[in-house]
Every structure is written in structure tokens, then in C-alpha cells.
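Hello, quick one for you while I still have it in my head. No rush at all, and the record is pasted right below.
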Amino acid sequence: MALSTRLMLRQGQSLVMTPQLLQAIKLLQYSNMELSAYVEQELERNPLLERTEETGDHEPASAPADPRDGRDTEWESDAGDAEGLGASDWSEGGRSEGDWAQEALSTDAASLSAELGTEVDNAFDADRAPTPAETRHDDPGLSATSWTGSGGGGGDEEAPNLEAYVAAQVGLSEHLEQQLALAIVDPTDRLIGHALIDGIDEAGYLREPVGEIAERLGAPVERVERVLAVIHTFDPGGVGARDLSECLAIQLRERDRFDPAMQALVAHLPLLAKRDFTQLRKICGVDDEDLSEMLKEIRALDPKPGRAFGGAPVQPVAPDVTVRQGPDGAWLVELNPEGLPRVLVNQTYAARVMRAGLAPAEKTYITECLQNANWLTRSLEQRARTILKVATEIVRQQDGFFSKGVEHLRPLNLKIVADAIGMHESTVSRVTSNKHLVCPRGLFEFKYFFTASIPAQAGGDAHSAEAVRFKIKQMIDQETADDVLSDDAIVLRLKQANVNIARRTVAKYRESLRIPSSVERRREKAALRGQS
């Protein structure tokens, strides 16, 4: 068969993801913080966009001055008035305002020096001779300080920034480096100390192995260990430890409580986590009273010494939707206005600029800015309507939760909501990501209301996994030391409550709630009863 080239015409359809469509999808799944950051960037990039708060909700702001106009009568009149003012208009009795301010400050400096019995010249800028840069050519009696906040006048220079004098929060690394500069003099050891401090995380633990640090620096491991021992003496206590046992041991040494019994207890922390107090008493060689005192001392220690210095800044969660009960008992779903960025398109300014004689490139730029601004405002409106529609359907589906509590939470998935509001599941998934609602029961993420379904024992409506998890927690909270429920016992009680669930599912839910096993709970309750 011979190969040949042919020119053919075919017609077909395909879905093209335009940049605007891709960005609209991203806007839908943005959180409030991410959306605000994106809108801020668009406000800086697009001259046709402006905030609604700056101009009101109904009428746009006045258009910015056209740089092509070149006329500003207000500034010209102000300049003319300023030119008519002579030096005598700014003085009294031949003395300038700067002289009065300088004399007042000098008097205050003299009085304070007499009262305090010391010189305070360095606290008053008016007592020193002005530099040539600070002297004004039009009035030699006015210094730069006379026109700033210290002189009480307003002028060309900015007032002193008081925020510049506020001490910034000291981080853990900076705090340790300050102590390192005082504790170690040798430059090589100080370099090793900086490398060790760089390997300490926000919790205060050294996560990088000492051997790797020594190999990277080309230093003996013994020398690195010696410098690390010095860091262990720094504040906060326990910083630079490589595991929890070492962290607690460092703090106990500082308190002079690291005796042999305490050493044995710290060395067997897994038994403490399992509440195996009988085995701990044998290993430590103490009775119940001594073990109880040792446990109190362990609880008084800080397992994460670095958290006192904070970590990454915590971003507050702003709800996207508020849910409240109306006078008739129905639930009202409203968008949170504080979480919605309000922007509008300045059509007046756009029309004014387009009427001016523009170059082709400038006209293209203004047209693109107008299109992007209109697209952004429409996308924000569509995003708000979609969020409100999804939230309203969630409240309708989970009416029992808002009225009676977690026990009445129903199983729900994305398909149910998507079919109810006539949208695709992927759209509902994007809407429920990083979105929150606030109601009389607290602040909840949208995804909290989407839970798995657990069938009923004798037929009927299925149960929500979150509601079953809540029931398990209630059972365990109400148990006593003589009646500790095993996972099998919890399964039997749930089946009596018409919940068909397996024992491994109960164990999984219990572990997700960070509740220990029945054996560990029984040991802990017995120990607490023995202490009382």
C-alpha cells in the first residue's frame, strides 16, 4: 500500500478550558484568606477595579485624574496662596516657629536635667545644632525636627514611626543563638552550635541526627555531642533533645529529681502510655504512693519546650455562612458579608479614558482590563450564589443536627447535594473545600456534614458515622472503674440501639477519638481510685 498525503476537513466538538474558566474554578475552592489575597493582587494590577467600601455601595467613586489633562486648578490656587505668604507671616516678633519650639524643648531639657541630676542632651534633638541637610533654604530658623512630630508641625517629612520602636517577638532560634553567643567562646564550637540550632524544630527537638551534622561540618562526633550538651543547658529546659525521654530527663536534671527510680520511669515511657502501673512499680522499685508522686512530677514537665515561643502565625477562621433560627423556627442561611470582598468596575473612568486619544497598545490594555474586571465581579457573584445554594441544601439535609445535636446527624454524600441543587459533584466538592459555617452549636467545616452511612440493625434509616462515633464517646465517658466497656460490649450496646456495626469499626472509631483500649482504661481508673 502506497503512502500519500491528503488534505481533509473534519468537524468536531471539544471542551476548551480557557484561562478565565480555570481561574473561576480556582476561585470557587479558595478560602476567605486566599480569595482576599487574590483580590488584592487584582486591585493592584487592574486600574479599573476599586473597592466598594471606599466609595459606597451604590455609586462609583470619582474617576482618577487623567494624566493627559495636565490641569489642576485647586493645586494652582493653593500654590498661589502659598507664594503670597512671606517669612513674617510665619513668625511673631521676628522669631520663627522653629525658634519657639527649640526654646520650649531646651527649657524642658534644662528642667529635667535639674530634677534628675544628670545630662539628658541625647534625649532632645532640638539642643543639638541642625545639620546642613536639615536646614531649610527658605527659612534658616526652621529645622527638620520642627516640621516632624517632635516639633508639632506638619511638613514634607514623615512623623516618627512608633511601631519601629516596638520590640518584635523573639523566636526560638534567635533566643538560643543569643545564649550561644554568651555560653561558647570558641569560633569552631560556636559554628557547630549554629548548625545544631538550625536543626531544632518549633517544638524544641533536634530532628537532624548528630552524625549527619558532624559529617557535614567535618567535625568529630564527640565535639558535636559536647556542644549539644551545652545547648541542653539553655532556656527553655529540655530544648535540643532528640526524643521525649531525653527531653524529660534534661528537665528533671535541672530540678535535681533525676534519681534512679525516675531514670527507670523515663526509660519505660511506653509502659506509662499503656497505663501499666503494676509493671512500672516493679521496674522502679517503688510503692503506689511514690509512683503517684513521680507521675505528678512527669505531668508537670513540658514535653514541647519550644512551643512557648510560638511557631507559624495562626490564621483565624472566618465563617463563610451564618446559620440562625428565625422567628418561625426555620433556619435562616446567610452569607457572611465580612468574608466577601466587594469590588466594582469603574465604568466612568473606563469611558473617560477610552474617549481620549489612545494608542492601539493602550486601547488594547484598557479593553483587557475592562474584560478582566467584569469577569472578576461576575465570578465573585457566582461564587457567592453557589456557596449559599450548597449551604442551604446542607442545612436542609441536616436539620436534625442543628435542632437536636450530633446524635441526629444524617449520612450525607456529595451526590445527594449535587442532585438536589442541579450541579456536578466536582462543583460541590470545590465549594465544600475550606469553607465554614457558624451556627448556635459552633463553627463547623462544610465537609463535617458529609459522613459515611452505617446500616441499621433492624432496618430503617441508616446512621451517620459521626453520630455513632459520638455515641461511643458518650458510653466510654459514662463508664466506671468496675464496669469498663470492651469493644465487644460497645458493639452489643450499639446493636441494642439499632446500629449494625463491626467490632473492628468500633476500634477504629475509638482510636480516632484517641481513647485507649479497655485494658489501659481499667488500669488508669484503678490507679486513680487508689490515689483517692
User: Anything to note?
Assistant: The longest helix spans residues 360-397. Residues 54-107, 120-157 have pLDDT under 50 and may be disordered. The chain is about 50% helix and 5% strand. The radius of gyration is 36 Å.
